[in-house]
């Protein structure tokens, strides 16, 4: 299958480039991937796993071996939702390293990969790997490259830089670009200028699509609560209530009853 067909397959048709037409959520394991399969367009097996699954302070500690295992798990559970794998920090420092990493994700079942920034190293990596799997870029707040999580592109100079980075990623061959934590007006401008879809997270309503971290959306991760996160469920309260009921029933002797025991 050539590159153009692969990208078309991943994106499931150019008509889906309409505003608001792409939805992504991060996903890290088999059970969530299976339970939520077919609802959104893509799962992103993000390096945010380092924070929300492993409790690391940032996304810089997770390595390729660990993420490949998560990608395998998600791909086993996802029969309809396409899977994008995040290239962890340093896994695309050289074209050879990038090719090895993307090949590992491809073997694990991923349909595409994502990487951060638009440095010459990153752009070289995009060109080296785009023939293996479609590549998604990521500009604005790029946690692999920054130490402080704050809105990017507020002044004219940095806004122009982010626009140019997004264009450079498009020209290098990316099929989409994540815009993280930038003013809505800048995201709108980038979305108007680019041919490829933009995926916003903290980038306002004018992007082609949106992505959120699953555990934020479900109210399961509370260590960071950025303004752009909308919590759609109180997963923590839901889980605690179920566990408390289990503990109460164990204490009172009502669990296990006959229906949960073998004769
Ligand atoms: O790793 C991740 O979760 C991400 C999203 C925030 C886009 O890169």
Helical content (DSSP H or I, runs of 4+): 40-55%
Tally of individual helices: 10
Please provide the ordered H/E string of secondary-structure elements: HEHEHHEHEHEHEHEEHH
Largest sheet: 8 strands, parallel, barrel
CATH architecture of the largest domain: Alpha-Beta Barrel
How would you describe this protein?
This protein folds into two domains: 231 residues, Phosphoenolpyruvate-binding domains (TIM Barrel, Alpha-Beta Barrel), CATH 3.20.20.60; 29 residues, no CATH class. Helix content is 40%, strand content 14%. It has an eight-stranded parallel barrel, surrounded by four helices. β5, α7 and β6 form a beta-alpha-beta unit. α4 runs parallel beside α5, α5 packs across α6 and α7 runs parallel beside α8. It is globular. It binds 3-methyl-2-oxobutanoic acid. 3-methyl-2-oxobutanoic acid binds next to β6.
Defining key terms:
14% strand; alpha/beta; 2 domains; binds 3-methyl-2-oxobutanoic acid; disordered N terminus; globular; TIM Barrel; 263 residues; eight-stranded parallel beta barrel
Short description:
40% of the residues lie in helices and 14% in strands. It is built from ten helices and eight strands.
List the helices and strands and how they pair.
Blueprint: H1 3-11, E1 22-26, H2 30-35, E2 42-45, H3 49-52, H4 64-77, E3 82-86, H5 95-108, E4 112-114, H6 120-129, E5 135-140, H7 156-172, E6 176-180, H8 184-193, E7 198-201, E8 209-212, H9 214-217, H10 235-252
Parallel strand pairs: 1-2, 1-8, 2-3, 3-4, 4-5, 5-6, 6-7, 7-8
Helix pairs in contact: 4-5, 5-6, 7-8
The structure holds 3-methyl-2-oxobutanoic acid.
């Amino acid at each position: 299958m050539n590159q153009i067909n692969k990208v078309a397959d991943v994106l499931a048709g150019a008509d889906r480039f309409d505003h608001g037409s792409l939805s992504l959520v991060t996903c890290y394991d088999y059970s969530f991937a299976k339970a939520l399969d077919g609802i959104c367009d893509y799962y992103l097996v993000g390096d945010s796993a380092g924070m929300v699954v492993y409790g690391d302070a940032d996304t810089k500690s997770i390595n390729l071996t660990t993420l490949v295992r998560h990608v395998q798990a998600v791909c086993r559970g996802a029969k309809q939702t396409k899977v994008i794998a995040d290239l962890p920090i340093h896994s695309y420092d050289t074209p050879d390293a990038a090719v090895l990493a993307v090949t590992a994700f491809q073997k694990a079942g991923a349909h595409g990969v994502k990487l951060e920034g638009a440095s010459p190293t990153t752009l070289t990596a995009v060109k080296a790997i785009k023939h293996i799997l479609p590549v998604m870029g990521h500009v604005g707040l790029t946690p692999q490259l920054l130490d402080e999580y704050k809105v990017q592109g507020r002044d004219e100079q940095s806004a122009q830089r982010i626009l140019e980075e997004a264009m450079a990623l498009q020209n290098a061959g990316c099929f989409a670009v994540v815009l993280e934590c930038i003013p809505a007006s800048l995201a709108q401008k980038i979305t108007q200028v680019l041919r490829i879809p933009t995926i916003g997270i903290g980038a306002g309503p004018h992007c082609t699509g949106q992505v959120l971290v699953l555990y934020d959306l479900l109210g399961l991760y509370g260590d960071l609560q950025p303004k752009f996160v909308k919590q759609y469920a109180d997963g923590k309260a839901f889980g605690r209530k179920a566990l408390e009921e289990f503990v109460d029933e164990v204490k009172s002797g009502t669990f296990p009853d006959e229906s949960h025991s073998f004769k």
